[in-house]
Amino acid sequence: MPDNRGRPTELEIQHAMEEYLRWTGWFVVPMNQQWALSYPGIADLYALKNSISVWFEVKKPKGKQSDNQKIFEADIKAKKGNYFVVVTIEDVEEATRGLRWK
Questions:
Q1: How do residues 87-97 score in pLDDT, each as one tens digit?
Q2: pTM of this structure
Q3: At what angle do helices 10-23 and 89-97 cross, to 10 degrees?
Q4: Cross-strand partners of 48
């Protein structure tokens, strides 16, 4: 359901991104609140395709990462993992386009 200004909620944006990723052949796992409580800052979506794994933090246009989300991002990148903050499906498309398949 859109917010009180008629804009999609962050969860609606996330669901659209999940659908897009699945449509383009990705295995997608949404991280629910139970995961967030057990691992502070965990990204909203995990996706896997052709041995490439990606973490996506979904934000509304003016959304900001929490300190825990920034720590999670740094941890993933320190291990040479793929992590992206995304606002639109176009962001997801651009992020996945630049990945190298094995």
A1: 999 999 999 99
A2: 0.87
A3: 40
A4: 27, 53
